[in-house]
Structures are given as C-alpha cells and as structure tokens.
Amino acid sequence: MVEWLAPIALFWVMTALYLGGFALHIEGGGGGRQLAGVFVTFALYLLVWFGLRAVLRGPLGVVGGVMVACLLTTALLPVLTHVSFRILGIRVTAAKHA
Q1: Where does residue 92 fall: left (phi above 0), alpha (psi -120 to 50 degrees), or beta otherwise?
Q2: In this structure, are residues 16 and 42 in contact, taking their beta carbons and an 8 Å threshold?
C-alpha cells in the first residue's frame, strides 16, 4: 500500500505547478466546476498510473514499475488535465502573451 503514496503526492505537486505555474487560460465553469475538474484529473491520473504499474511491474519489478509508471503518468498530466476539464465543459488553453 505504500506504493500508492508516490503517485498521490506527485500528482498534487505537479498539478499545482502545471495549473498555477504555466501560462494557461481556463474558460468556463465557476470555481466548483474547476475544482471538480481537478478531482476528475486526479481520478484519471490514478487510473492511468494503476494500469501502467500493472503492465510494468512484471518486467521492471515493484520499485521500477512504480517509478516508471509515475514518470510516464506525470508526463501525460497535461493531456489528462485537458481531457478531464473538457469532460466538465471547461476549456484549458495556452494563454496568449501580450
């Protein structure tokens, strides 16, 4: 059960960096729907991580499977964010610089 700690902790840090630190424009929905978008992203992130971990656990072992699954899932975080926010009718686009 300790192996779940890595992706959960990594998700919140990387999501805060992505949504708060990148130049993104979030259109539509109020604060509640946007918060729901973060939780839907969290659910998708864990589903993808669980699937990758299950596939990679055999060839890479427990530790290698968890590490590589975390890296690959974190690399997919922008895609997962766009998909989950879009499910709720919210658009996430790159902000245009003035």
Answers
A1: beta
A2: no
82 CB-contact burial (10 Å; exposed 0-12 / middle 13-18 / buried 19+): middle
Residue 89's domain comprises 2-94
* Helices (H), ranges, 22-92: 31-75, 77-87
Query: Residues 6 or more apart from 70 whose CB is under 8 A from it?
Result: 6, 7, 10, 49
> How far is it, in rounded angstroms, from Cα 48 to Cα 50?
5
List the structure tokens of 48: 């993808």
Q: Total structural domains in the chain? A: 1
pTM metric for this prediction: 0.86
Q: What is the pLDDT of residues 14-72, one digit of tens each?
A: 999 988 888 887 888 788 888 898 999 999 999 999 998 888 887 788 788 888 889 99
